[in-house]
């Protein structure tokens, strides 16, 4: 599954563009501020209904315009259109009909976005890493979204009861029982997918030259104590949870922990090694999803700014074995092309686009 055609209008500094994308690598190069990242942002909007750079649609709509539109035609035959209005609201359509949810978009167009934020995954809070696991489970296990929603409803109810101040034990019992049932389903699905993710990540790392990366241990932490059931943990922490006003154990606290020789991985690995670890994990996510759903499209923002030439080449090889299509950006044309040229067809024949002051021209 690939994106065959991408049309944008009034999207940041891009007044309008109508792009026919190639099946392998699509390379967008140009000076700082020319609009390269905006192209990736537009694709992200097709796959989720929102930008990855700002929560407010207003900042993405071209200054002075009333609306932005993005339209994409997928190789699977689906057409997706997103419109956002300065006044608020807008619409998302799949084959002319209103989309039911952003998860419907995500399922049509699985995306892996690699940018400077992705490389900070090891340093940030658990939510960042949990989202990576959730993305993978969502695409692999069809029942996951419903299980997660069921869990979140029960969690919200328990938190609302905790915040009432006066504890109603019978009500808490009811919601905790539901919470535990949903939590177990979420945990089982995450655990199953994590095992595949771990195996794929370890295989990729094993192919790298010897370095401390080979000693990285990745663990799934389910969000509550190992020696207790969630029901026991919730009961034991009721008073503390009441004081805090929220539930402090459960799948909403799950994490992926990376360590080397018992130390946090970020305390041992160099910045470049950490980035390769993230690249391996992202590639592994794509491979797991490709096996049971469909290979994702990779959006890679300015890789030459993140990795040296050799590591860019390794990552390009990984991606070519895992992706449906790639959109990459960079400032210099040849430097950005370089890692892809040693690959087989179609990856070694990028479709090249020059971006200049919001105008995008295809090079022959
Ligand atoms: N709402 C908007 N309306 C018009 N222009 C905007 C709007 N938001 C941002 N811009 C401008 O659009 C351009 C967007 O640039 P973008 O981040 O896509 O560039 P880039 O080529 O990826 O740059 P860099 O190499 O610096 O990361 C910038 O020049 C920015 O100032």
From TrEMBL:
TM helices/strands, residue ranges: none
Residue positions binding ATP: 30-37
Keyword set, alphabetical order: ATP-binding, Cytoplasm, DNA damage, DNA repair, DNA replication, DNA-binding, Nucleotide-binding, SOS response
SUPFAM superfamilies: P-loop containing nucleoside triphosphate hydrolases
Pfam families hit by this protein: SMC_N (PF02463)
Keyword ATP-binding tagged: yes
Domain of life: Bacteria
Domain RecF/RecN/SMC N-terminal: 3-335
Compartments reported by the entry: Cytoplasm
InterPro entries: DNA-binding_RecF, DNA-binding_RecF_CS, P-loop_NTPase, RecF/RecN/SMC_N, RecF_2
Job description of the protein: The RecF protein is involved in DNA metabolism; it is required for DNA replication and normal SOS inducibility. RecF binds preferentially to single-stranded, linear DNA. It also seems to bind ATP.
Family: Belongs to the RecF family.
PANTHER family linked: DNA REPLICATION AND REPAIR PROTEIN RECF (PTHR32182:SF0)
Name assigned to this protein: DNA replication and repair protein RecF
Source organism per UniProt: Microbulbifer aestuariivivens
């Amino acid at each position: 599954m690939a994106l065959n055609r991408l049309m944008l209008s009034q999207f940041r500094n891009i007044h309008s563009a109508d792009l026919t994308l190639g099946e392998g690598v699509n390379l967008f190069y140009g000076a700082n501020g020319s609009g390269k990242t905006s192209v990736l942002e537009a694709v992200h909007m097709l796959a989720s209904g929102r930008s990855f750079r700002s929560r407010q649609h207003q900042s993405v709509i071209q200054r002075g315009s009333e609306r932005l539109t993005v339209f994409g035609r997928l190789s699977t035959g689906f057409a997706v259109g997103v419109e956002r209005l300065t006044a608020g609201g807008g619409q998302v359509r799949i084959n002319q009909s209103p989309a039911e949810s952003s998860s419907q978009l995500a399922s049509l167009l699985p995306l892996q976005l690699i940018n400077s934020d992705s490389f900070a995954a090891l340093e940030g809070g658990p939510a960042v890493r949990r989202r990576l696991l959730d993305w993978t489970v969502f695409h692999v296990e069809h029942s996951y979204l419903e299980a997660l929603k069921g869990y979140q409803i029960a969690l919200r109810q328990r938190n609302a009861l905790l915040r009432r101040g006066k504890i109603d034990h019978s009500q808490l019992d009811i919601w905790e029982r539901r919470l535990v049932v949903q939590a177990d389903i979420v945990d089982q699905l995450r655990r199953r997918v994590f095992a595949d993710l771990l195996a794929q990540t370890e295989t990729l790392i094993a192919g790298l030259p010897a370095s401390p990366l080979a000693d990285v241990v990745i663990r799934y932490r389910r969000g509550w104590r190992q020696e207790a059931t969630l029901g026991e943990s919730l009961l034991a922490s009721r008073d503390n949870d009441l004081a805090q006003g929220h539930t402090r154990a459960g799948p909403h606290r799950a994490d992926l922990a990376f360590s080397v020789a018992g130390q946090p991985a970020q305390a041992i690995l160099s910045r470049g090694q950490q980035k390769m670890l993230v690249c391996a994990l992202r590639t592994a996510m794509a491979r797991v999803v490709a096996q049971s759903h469909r290979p994702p499209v990779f959006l890679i923002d300015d890789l030459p700014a993140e990795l040296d030439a050799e590591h860019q080449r390794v990552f390009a090889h990984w991606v070519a074995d895992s992706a449906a299509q790639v959109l990459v950006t960079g400032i210099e044309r040849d430097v950005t092309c370089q890692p892809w040229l040693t690959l087989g067809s179609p990856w070694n024949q990028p479709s090249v686009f020059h971006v200049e002051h919001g105008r995008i021209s295809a090079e022959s």
